[in-house]
Design a protein that fits this description.
3 domains; Butyryl-Coa Dehydrogenase, subunit A, domain 1; binds flavin-adenine dinucleotide; Butyryl-CoA Dehydrogenase, subunit A, domain 3; alpha+beta; 385 residues; 3-stranded mixed β-sheet; single chain; 4-stranded antiparallel β-sheet
Length: 385
């Protein structure tokens, strides 16, 4: 394993054929499920099982844990194609791949066995980091883990945990030594059915097919073997791969919105001609095309660099640039599409309002817009803290 849990891919695929396979899978497995999941705010677990069977969980994971040994590039292709149908069922794949990789990259043999189950479609995981008072400032997490003999006792409250209600294991960040800053923080693999773990839903306007929850840890006792034996910084560096997948997720979504708006502009007639015949509408679509194209180049460039095996510090600028641009662009593109939809765009008879709403979460999560700009400025050598 390379520095910060990064591997260079050991296998290759025909990327065109892989993309076709992912697109066909999305039409077959995402399309029939997402609307009901969105309405009921219940994640369909059989979708995760189907993803695992299709080889979409553990794409970059080592073959020793049942993974496929491919790169972030292929993982991004899968994320883009799934998100082209629905970004919220797609995010469930993102979470399994990112949380699963913490277990197989840094875990003990027993934790790697859990990763194997995740990849096989037998065990879901959730990333359990954010707290009500520690959003972007995750070094400020208050959940504590105190050693008592061979056990750790966890106390605290987490918020916005995607898929916590479905997950079997919660990959949880806690303070083990408050005075030690980052060095006093550890991740634990906590089975969700451990006594004292209480999961309650948070009602959101976004991400409804993969709901987010509060997770309370009330004197939760886990054995020392639940502690993931790697440092906070080491594991957090791996989260840069998540940001590439976030960019790919919103790339798929904005491509979908652009395709929809183009079609609408060609078929909706006013004043005796398609609305797309007006230069003012056509230019909005042309601008949206530039956003999509630029996002695609930035995203796959970051993925390629990640796969090159260079040190993580040399990829941060590319990753943050892609994440920043994609998450701003998806809001612009979906707002353009919504506007082109006119009054009908605001009804439930057309899909675009739902898509515009879903896009609003993009600049907020996995390091907000300002956090990405701060990272970019730092890489530029500016003296920001
Ligand atoms: C739908 C959804 C799903 C999520 N899933 C997960 C999950 O699975 N696991 C998990 O652990 N977390 C998850 N999160 C949490 C998510 O990553 C946090 O919401 C995010 O970190 C923002 O935290 P916050 O809402 O507390 O915002 P805050 O950190 O309070 O930020 C509020 C505003 O202040 C700005 N800001 C903050 N600090 C600075 C600064 N230093 N400089 C400039 N501006 C700043 C931010 O950019 C933002 O605009 C999810 C959130 C949502 C909404």
């Amino acid at each position: 394993m390379s520095e910060s849990g990064r591997r260079t891919p050991v296998n290759t695929v025909d990327r065109v054929a892989f993309r076709d396979m992912c697109a066909a899978f999305a039409r077959r497995e995402v399309a029939p499920r997402w609307e009901q999941a969105d309405r009921e705010k219940i994640f369909p677990r059989d979708f995760y099982v189907a993803c695992a069977k299709a080889g979409l969980i553990g794409i970059t994971a080592d073959e020793s844990v049942g993974g496929h040994g491919l790169g972030a590039y292929e993982e991004a292709i899968a994320m883009e194609e799934l998100s082209r149908i629905n970004p919220n069922l797609a995010v469930s794949v993102l979470v399994q791949n990112v949380a699963g990789s913490i277990l197989y990259e840094y875990g003990t043999d027993a934790q790697r066995a859990i990763a194997r189950q995740v990849i096989a479609g037998e065990c879901m995981v959730a990333i359990t980091v954010t707290e009500p008072e520690a959003g972007n400032d995750i070094q400020n997490v208050r959940t504590s883990a105190q050693r008592q003999g061979d056990e750790w006792v966890l106390d605290g409250l987490k918020s916005f945990i995607t898929l916590a209600a479905s997950a079997d294991v919660l990959i949880t960040l806690a303070q083990t030594d408050r005075g030690q800053g980052r060095r006093g923080m550890q991740f634990f693999a906590v089975p969700r059915n451990t006594p004292g773990v209480v999961v309650t839903p948070i009602e959101t306007y976004v991400n409804r097919p993969a709901p987010t929850c509060r997770v309370a840890f009330n004197q939760v006792r886990v054995p020392d073997s639940a502690r993931i034996p790697a440092g906070f910084r080491e594991i957090m560096a791996g989260f840069n791969r998540e940001r590439i997948m976030v960019a790919a997720r919103w790339l798929g979504h904005m491509q979908h919105a652009l395709d929809w708006a183009r079609e609408y502009a060609l078929t909706r007639h006013q004043f005796g001609r398609p609305i797309g015949a007006n230069q003012s509408i056509a230019f909005q679509l042309a601008n949206a095309h530039v956003d999509v194209d630029a996002t695609r180049r930035l995203t796959y460039h970051a993925a390629e660099k990640w796969d090159s095996g260079c040190p993580v510090k040399d990829v941060i600028l590319d990753v943050s640039t892609a994440k920043f641009f994609a998450t701003q662009a998806v809001v612009r593109v979906t707002q353009t599409a919504l506007h082109i939809g006119g009054g009908w765009g605001l009804t439930e008879e057309l899909p675009i309002m739902r898509m515009a709403l879903d896009a609003l979460v993009a600049p907020v999560t996995v390091g907000s817009t300002e956090i990405q700009l701060r990272a970019i400025a730092k890489e530029m050598g500016l003296p920001v803290d």
